[in-house]
Amino acid sequence: MVEFALLLPVLVLFIFGILDFGRSIYYYSAVSQAVGQAARAAALAPNSLPSNSDVLAAVQSGAGWIQLAPCPNDTPTTTGLPAGQAWLFISNPGGADANSDGANAPGGESGTPGVGCSSPARAVTGDKLQVEIVYNFTPFTPLIAQFTGNQLFLSSTSVLPVEY
Predict the structure, then answer these.
(1) What is the average pLDDT score of the chain?
(2) Contacts 24+ apart (CB under 8 A), 64-69
(3) How many Å apart are CA 71 and CA 48, to the nearest integer?
(4) Is the pLDDT higher at 71 or at 96?
(5) Mean pLDDT lowest among 21-25, 63-67, 94-98
């Protein structure tokens, strides 16, 4: 009984750690799939230029559980990202000189006014768009969450040329 009482907390922590690890792999896979769909929606436009809402809708169709913050066209950062939320970033890959015209948004829209979103130039044929999703994963095991401080960022990126 004493040995079991001493080993039970370690065993429970080990089992829940494995479950958290499995959840993080599932979430990373879903974020990767969602970023692929978002990049496709941002790079292809059958009738008109894609809007931020088109790209956000593509992410939601790929992973409906992702709660996205309101600023899709901004510099990728993890500062201020709440636990269990994701940010979608549409930018030009590799810095300011990646696209000669400085474009980094599908339709040239800004994000939600008042939250520090940029107003990027509209991407044109031949430009490359980088779509990135950063998700703040929260482990449900309290001890693991304490060690990580609820700051486990899962990030996936896709770069596609614009075809509109």
Answers:
(1) 79
(2) 65/30, 66/30, 66/31, 66/34, 66/133, 66/135
(3) 22
(4) 71
(5) 94-98
Is the separation of the CB atoms in 135 and 31 below 8 Å? yes
Please name the residue that has the structure tokens 């692929």: 36
Give the end-to-end CA distance of the chain in Å, rounded to a whole number.
70
The rounded distance, in Å, linking the Cα atoms of 74 and 123 is: 14
Q: What angle do CA 141, 30, 137 make, to 5 degrees?
A: 30
User: 20, 62, 60: which is closest to 146 by C-alpha?
Assistant: 20
- Single-letter residue type at 35: V
Token representation of residue 41: 């929606």
Interhelix angle 2-43/52-62, rounded to 10 degrees, is 140
| pLDDT tens digits along 101-135 | 666 677 666 655 545 566 667 777 777 888 888 88
Residue 88's identity, in one-letter code, is L
Work out the pLDDT band at 28, boundaries 50, 70, 90: very high
**Helix (H) or strand (E) run with residue 86 in it:** strand 86-91
